[in-house]
Amino acid sequence: MKVALIGMGSVGKGVAGVIARKDLGLTITGIADSTSGCVDPDGLDIANLLLNKSKNGCCGDRQISAMDVIKKADYDALIEVTPTNALTGEPAIGYIKTALLRKKHVVTSNKGPIALAYKELHALAHKNGVVLRYEATVAGAVPVMHTLEHGLAGNEILALYGVLNGTCNYILTRMADEGLTYEQALLEAREMGYAEADPTYDVQGIDAAIKLVILANTIWGNGVRLNDVDRTGIDLLTADALRLAEEEGCTIRLIAEAIPRKHILRVSPRILGKNHPLVVDGTLNALTLETDLAKEITLIGRGAGSTETASAIIGDLLFIKDRYARST
Ligand SMILES: NC(=O)c1ccc[n+]([C@@H]2O[C@H](COP(=O)([O-])OP(=O)(O)OC[C@H]3O[C@@H](n4cnc5c(N)ncnc54)[C@H](OP(=O)(O)O)[C@@H]3O)[C@@H](O)[C@H]2O)c1
Questions:
Q1: What residues line ligand 1, using a CB cutoff of 6 Å?
Q2: pLDDT confidence tier of residue 324, bands split at 50, 70 and 90
Q3: What are φ and ψ of residue 128, in 5° steps?
């Protein structure tokens, strides 16, 4: 199956590397970053492009834009891995719509378009006889969407509870384990490359809330929006709060929860017993799904990382390749 890759950052390079390394029946025929692009209907030389990207900062010809690649390249599925814009979803929404209108499948790790425009994009995909998949948008490598779609098919999902932001989880783990203040733990997270220079999205629970919106809309199709989430971050948590929880044999985690029967859609720091399944350490993510048939299922794994996120994208691509692709 031919694929075009838009975005050559951490995730894009991870995806390109896996496709180049493994014999998965996937050929990259178009690539673009923010300033350049290149196409070859017979397949690009990925090793060379990755080398060029690390040496020169661009992956192709500066006369070719990402939109040129999306509009003109010969591909079956678009891989959209550009930065998340949680306010407008652009330019990714435009990229995805353009590909869907060309009757190309789309796989994305970008939360913006899915949180803001999923209904419209899904309808457009359906109208054009293609699919839009987004496993990587929630909990990185953890196959949440595949589990919901296949493993738990026939179950009614009654509620979900998750640790969906690795940065917050790392900070809380370090505050509890080492008695660090929030500021010290945040600084350490930055030094480790787990927190952005501006950590607002993570520490104020916005990133977790966006993922909660994506999950809620996927499971219940209830059209919830970011503003519907009752949200408290971890930025005001004190070392004392962590210490008091510790004294009770508990700890604190930032929990995203959705319980439709109680009209709860919330992200907030919660006190949990230390052996609670959602008390995972470091940058791990965890998600408990409460269902009518299977009862409780908890998935744990890496919520970010270049190859970890590529794993989710590759899973979506191979699903499309097996089920839908017209050509290989
Ligand atoms: N990193 C993770 O572990 C992870 C996990 C799950 C989901 N995600 C999501 O996956 C997406 C990609 O993440 P990332 O970490 O790979 O980001 P990143 O390292 O910042 O890379 C973004 C890439 O997109 C390119 N880009 C920026 N603006 C563009 C535009 N207007 N048109 C075309 N390309 C553009 C950048 O080009 P230049 O190279 O020229 O700057 C860069 O190659 C984000 O939406 C993120 O939220 C990431």
A1: 6-12, 32-35, 66, 81-84, 91, 109-111, 136, 140, 304-305, 309
A2: confident
A3: -100, 5
Q: What CATH number was assigned to the domain covering residues 146-303?
A: 3.30.360.10
Give residue 13 CA to ligand 1 midpoint distance, Å. 10
Q: pLDDT per residue over 230-263, tens digit each? A: 999 999 999 999 999 999 999 999 999 999 999 9
- Four-way CATH pick for 2-141+307-323: 3.90.226.10, 3.40.800.20, 3.20.20.70, 3.40.50.720: 3.40.50.720
Q: Which atom of ligand 1 is nearest to the CA of 84?
A: 45
Residues near 257 by Cβ (< 8 Å), separated by ≥ 6? 159, 160, 161, 162, 212, 264, 265, 266, 267
Cα 241 to middle of ligand 1, angstroms: 36
- What amino acid positions are annotated as catalytic residues? 211
